[in-house]
Design a protein that fits this description.
Layout (H helix, E strand, L loop, with lengths): L3 E2 L10 E4 L8 H6 L9 H14 L12 E7 L4 E5 L12 H11 L5 E8 L5 E2 L3 H8 L6 E5 L6 E5 H4 L17
Parallel strand pairs: 5-7
Antiparallel strand pairs: 1-2, 2-6, 3-4, 3-5, 7-8
């Protein structure tokens, strides 16, 4: 098995989980947050999420970094909604794949998510959502499962948002109800 170490960089293109050693050598915190199961998804749902997430990279507009990212949301209604990163000459105007997918879901009437898949073109590494994307995902629930795939989906693992965004700020901090995501 391959070990992955979480990097907490705020840049999506630099926030990489590195291949280092064996799974048993992970730090205690990392052992507790990295999972290789499907967490309630059927085999068919998982396969669809993986396929759509990997294909979503084809939608990427990334002429500056050439770093394609695809994301797909599985809603609680069973719909799959994909997005890709969109770059801009004014780097601050770029939008990550995760936020593109979430925006598409919300404007399509979906605000409750079962899972989010994310994939990059990295071969031996697995990307992780940036800080801004983690906060946007947080808006729709702490219990959202995030599936992180390598370039072709041959390597993946699952994390829970609440584990990669501890002590988060959300709707309940403003006296509003939480999404059950």
């Amino acid at each position: 098995m391959i070990a992955f170490f979480l990097s907490l960089s705020l840049s999506c293109s630099q926030n990489i989980i590195r291949k280092e050693s064996t799974m048993t050598e992970l730090l205690p915190l990392e052992k507790s947050i990295i999972h290789t199961d499907h967490n309630g998804l059927t085999q068919e749902e998982f396969a669809n999420l993986k396929e759509k997430t990997i294909k979503a990279k084809d939608l990427s507009y990334s002429p500056y970094s050439n770093f394609r990212v695809g994301a797909t949301i599985l809603t609680t209604c069973g719909e799959y909604i994909s997005g890709a990163n969109v770059e801009n000459a004014s780097y601050g105007a770029c939008i990550c794949a995760e936020r593109t997918a979430i925006t598409r879901a919300v404007v399509s009437g979906f605000k409750s998510f079962r899972a989010i898949g994310i994939s990059t073109d990295l071969k031996d590494k697995i990307g992780s959502p940036c800080g801004i994307c983690r906060q946007v995902i947080r808006e729709f629930g702490l219990n959202v499962s995030i599936y992180l795939f390598n370039v072709d989906g041959s390597k993946y693992f699952r994390v829970q948002l609440k584990d990669i965004l501890p002590l988060s700020f959300g709707p309940s901090d403003l006296g509003l109800p939480e999404h059950d995501g």
